[in-house]
């Protein structure tokens, strides 16, 4: 894969090193040249000094051809700007964002951002998400993926769907859901109704992910 990591702190340097060791093409962007000293001796990628949401800097890093953009600076606002530029301006297939403030988590879900929140094992979790190659990845169990995502029902006439119908038609299991306005959360029954924008925790068979992806906000 061709990967751009923006931010070369503890998490960014560890993430870049993990992918470099896996024989991927890696470019690291940071505003401070000294930050690159934290990259491991085995790092074989490129380093670019600059601001990660600057379009010219991203183009120089190869954003137009990259597979993954990871925004892992120490500022939530910067990471959000980097992610939105990568997604909306350059159409990067997989953009992953580090989130510090958990109060913003629901907003990130509504925006369809793939993110990691927390301070422990962040690089390893990001690595796992990128390898899984899709948004909302939480964990893998054999042939199944556990996902957390905002439900996209724009393709349905009423923008609603009954849990039992969704599970039957797509061979998935809805584990829990939260209303998009945070008014309620529940473990659903078969006749529970889901609305466009609801946050859903679901178990999906890997080989059906591509077909089901139209229900995942991007």
Description:
The chain has 218 residues and is of the alpha/beta class. It has two domains: 2-133, NAD(P)-binding Rossmann-like Domain (Rossmann fold, 3-Layer(aba) Sandwich), CATH 3.40.50; 140-215, Alpha-Beta Plaits. 29% of the residues lie in helices and 29% in strands. It has seven helices and 13 strands. The strands form three sheets. A six-stranded parallel beta sheet has the order 3-2-1-4-5-6, sandwiched between helices. Strand 7 and strand 8 (144-150) form a beta hairpin. Helix 1 (10-21) crosses helix 5. The two termini are 21 Å apart. The mean pLDDT is 85.
Summary?
By secondary structure, the protein is an alpha/beta fold. The protein has helices at residues 10-21, 55-61, 76-89, 105-111, 122-132, 163-170, 209-212; strands at 2-6, 25-30, 46-49, 68-71, 94-99, 114-117, 137-141, 144-150, 160-162, 172-178, 185-186, 193-195, 199-205.
Low-confidence sequence ranges: none
> Counting H and I runs of at least 4 residues, what is the number of helices?
7
- Compute the gyration radius: what is it? 18 Å
Largest sheet: 6 strands, parallel
Structural class by secondary-structure content: alpha/beta
Quaternary state of the chains: single chain
Q: What is the mean predicted local confidence, pLDDT?
A: 85
Coarse shape: elongated
CATH topology name of the largest domain, in short, is: Rossmann fold
Topology, number of strands: 13
The level of helicity is 25-40%
Q: Spell out the helices and strands N to C.
A: EHEEHEHEHEHEEEHEEEEH
CATH class of the largest domain: Alpha Beta
CATH architecture of the largest domain: 3-Layer(aba) Sandwich
Report the portion of residues in β strands.
25-35%
Measure the end-to-end span. 21 Å
- Placed side by side, the strands forming the largest sheet appear as 3-2-1-4-5-6
Q: How many domains, as an integer?
A: 2
What's the name of the CATH homologous superfamily of the largest domain? NAD(P)-binding Rossmann-like Domain
């Amino acid at each position: 894969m061709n990967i751009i990591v923006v931010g070369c702190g503890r998490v960014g340097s560890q993430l870049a090193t993990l992918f470099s060791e896996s024989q991927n093409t890696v470019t690291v962007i940071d505003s401070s040249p000294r930050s690159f000293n934290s990259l491991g001796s085995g790092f074989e990628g490129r380093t670019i000094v600059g601001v990660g949401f600057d379009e010219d800097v991203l183009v120089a890093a190869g954003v137009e051809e990259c597979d993954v953009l990871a925004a892992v600076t120490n500022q939530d606002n910067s990471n959000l700007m980097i992610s939105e530029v990568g997604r909306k301006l350059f159409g990067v297939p997989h953009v992953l964002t580090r989130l510090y403030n958990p109060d913003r988590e629901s907003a990130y879900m509504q925006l369809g951002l793939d993110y990691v929140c927390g301070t422990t094992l962040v690089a390893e979790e990001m690595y796992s998400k990128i390898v899984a190659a899709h948004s909302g990845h939480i964990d893998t169990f054999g042939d199944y993926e556990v996902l957390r995502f905002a439900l996209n029902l724009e393709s349905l006439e009423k923008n609603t769907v009954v849990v039992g119908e969704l599970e039957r038609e797509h061979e998935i299991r809805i584990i829990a859901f939260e209303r998009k306005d945070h008014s309620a959360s529940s473990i659903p029954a078969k006749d529970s109704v889901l609305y466009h924008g609801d946050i859903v925790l679901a178990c999906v068979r890997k080989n059906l992910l591509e077909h089901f992806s139209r229900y995942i906000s991007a």
